[in-house]
Amino acid sequence: MMALVDTELAFSVLLGREQGLVEQILADIALGTFVSGNRLVTAQLAERYGTGVNPVREALKQLEGEGFVTSQKNSGARVASFEYTSMRDLFEILQLLEPYFMAWFVDHYSDENVAQLDQLLQQMRGLTANDRVGFLHLDNLFHWEMYRHHYNKNALKIWKTKRLMLLAMHGNLAVSRTRIEHSISEHQQIIEALRAGKGAQSVQALALHLSSSEDYWSKLIR
Q1: Neighbour-count burial of 122, counting CB atoms closer than 10 A to its CB (0-12 exposed, 13-18 middle, 19+ buried)
Q2: Using CA atoms, how far apart are residues 120 and 105, in angstroms rounded to an integer?
Q3: Can you spell out the DSSP letters for 70-83?
Q4: If we measure between CA atoms, which residue out of 41, 191, 58, 24 comes closest to residue 113?
Q5: DSSP state of 69
Q6: Rg of the chain (C-alpha set)
Q7: Measured between alpha carbons, how far is 20 from 30 in angstroms, rounded to an integer?
Q8: Does an H or E element contain 30, and which?
Q9: CB of 45 closer than 8 Å to CB of 11
Q10: Cα separations (Å) of 133 from 64, 69, 77?
Q11: Which one of 173, 192, 203, 215 is least enclosed by Cβ atoms within 10 Å?
Q12: DSSP letter (8 states) at residue 156
């Protein structure tokens, strides 16, 4: 299994300091530590996360209700097989939330914010081809830098949860180098629009980035 430190690195923005078992299990699914069809043994999970079996059972029950875990008599809990429609629904939620955050950001950002975005982008360029954890970490940070200043903390909490759920659906799918390069280019377009003071263009660039991401993952999961 992948070390927990990798989970904390890749999803530090989404998990925060008070993450529960549900979020930790989702993060491990998102990293591919657990993939579709894997058994989720209560005692092993309790040991992994340093908790008791009853909290694990409760977390698995919640994840079953949300469609991430299946449970059958005599076979226990397993990671579910995810459907395109579930992923589509999550993308639609994020495509509503993220431009909403971005529209506020373009009226309040500073040169320091843009410099931080550019630094994250340069780190993305320096990643090795197979560094999926590093890419997820930097991609989460890039988006969070634009959204974290927003006043609507409840909406931000929803974004974190839905983004983590979406990433969990991609956990056993590779991120191609081509997709990473496209993502870098799309992030660059957002930065260029911000530097030029073109707020509407930066919101549009973000929307295109989200649409491009949906197109890529849709082809893999269908």
Answers
A1: exposed
A2: 17
A3: EEETTTEEEEPPPP
A4: 191
A5: E
A6: 18
A7: 15
A8: helix 21-30
A9: no
A10: 26, 23, 26
A11: 215
A12: H
Identify the burial level of 39 via C-beta atoms within 10 angstroms of its C-beta, where 0-12 means exposed, 13-18 middle and 19 or more buried.
exposed
pTM for this prediction: 0.82
**C-alpha 162: how far from chain center:** 8
18 DSSP 8-state letter: S
Would you write out the chain's pLDDT as a tens digit for each of its 222 residues?
Answer: 333 334 555 677 777 655 688 888 888 888 788 888 899 999 999 999 999 999 999 999 999 988 889 988 777 899 888 788 888 999 999 999 999 999 999 999 999 999 999 999 999 999 887 788 888 889 999 999 999 999 999 999 899 888 888 888 887 777 888 889 999 999 999 999 999 999 999 999 999 999 999 998 888 776
Query: What single letter denotes the amino acid at residue 16?
Result: G
* Cβ burial, residue 40 (10 Å; 0-12/13-18/19+): buried
Cα–Cα distance measured from residue 34 to residue 88, given in angstroms and rounded to the nearest whole number: 22
Nearest-angstrom CA–CA distance, 129 and 213: 18
Residues making up the chain, counted from first to last: 222
